[in-house]
Specification:
This protein is about 50% helix and about 15% strand. With about 270 residues, it is α/β, with parallel strands linked by helices. It has 2 domains: about 200 residues, 2-enoyl-CoA Hydratase, Chain A, domain 1; about 50 residues. The strands form 2 sheets. Strands 1-2-3-4-6-9 form a 6-stranded mixed β-sheet, sandwiched between helices. A 3-stranded mixed β-sheet has the order 5-7-8. Helix 1 links the parallel strand 2 and strand 3. About 35% of the residues are buried. The model has no long low-confidence stretch (mean pLDDT about 95).
């Protein structure tokens, strides 16, 4: 495992810390490969009940490693650049699909800057909590590029097409309050409280009904492509799956007994 990504397992929470603080955690090839390995390990691990994605050194992620783009790829012929970056962007796709189908909640915790691919990764998580002094820039157009990492799929669905075009075409910085107003983040916390509030939310998710969370994710993400009839069929199937779990029995029993349920994630 590269030191570009730190993986920590504790109390049902797997924390993935993007660890290139000197370059604001810009996405390197080593980091990408490490994330692939980590997701493969945790996707079907029943001990993992919540995945937390964060950055080291006070920033989330400043996008791709643009300095390496300039030094290594800009001098190359156009056809070679086109072929290389098309392959490189394609190589991200299995990971983005894996994040969406992950049968447990994924939480992004944002400090400092989330730019370019950093915003794409943030939006690919199910929920986001952010420090109130964090900043955001969907900055692809600033380098003459277009979005990757599922950003062009998620941004219009989260913020609406008009806002998505504003953020993508202009590439301007926005503050945390604006990001919250645009639905890019779910919760804001004071900078000094972001770690504690993140841990509180991650712990709540890790102690929840994990199978239920996975079925909820499938329903919400699947609704974008499903017909009404298909969505209703999926609702019936997923409710049945949930009803077969120990957590469902605990949930309905606790509700009837007017006590707080103690879910086990199975």
């Amino acid at each position: 495992m590269t030191d570009h990504l730190i993986v920590d397992h504790q109390d049902g929470i797997t924390t993935l810390t993007m660890n290139r603080p000197k370059v604001m955690n810009a996405l390197s090839l080593d980091m990408r490969h490490a994330m692939f390995d980590a997701f493969d390990e945790i996707e079907n691990d029943p001990k993992v009940r919540c995945v937390l994605l964060r950055g080291a050194g006070g920033n989330f992620m400043a996008g791709g490693d643009v300095k390496s783009f300039a030094e290594e790829h800009a001098p190359k012929p156009p056809a070679e650049r086109q072929a290389y970056f098309e392959r490189r962007v394609h190589s991200l796709h299995p990971m983005m699909m894996q994040m969406q189908r992950m049968n447990k909640p994924m939480l992004a915790s944002i400090e400092g800057a989330a730019a370019g691919a950093g915003m794409s990764f943030m939006m690919a998580c199910d929920l986001a909590i952010a420090a109130s002094n964090s900043i955001y820039r969907f900055s692809y157009s600033a380098i003459g590029a277009s979005p990757d990492g599922s950003g062009s799929y998620n941004l219009p669905r989260i913020a609406g097409t008009r806002r998505a075009l504003e953020l993508a075409l202009l590439g301007d910085k926005i503050d945390a309050e604006t990001a919250y107003r645009y639905n890019l983040v779910n919760f804001l916390a004071a900078p000094e409280d972001i770690e504690a509030e993140t841990n509180k939310l991650a712990t709540r998710l890790a102690n929840g009904p994990t199978v239920s969370y996975g079925r909820i994710k499938e329903l919400m993400y699947g609704s974008h492509a499903n017909s009404f009839e298909s969505q209703l069929a999926m609702e019936a199937r997923n409710f049945g799956i949930c009803a077969a779990t120990e957590d469902w029995v605990e949930g309905v029993t606790a509700f009837a007994s007017k006590r707080v349920p103690e879910f086990k994630g199975k």
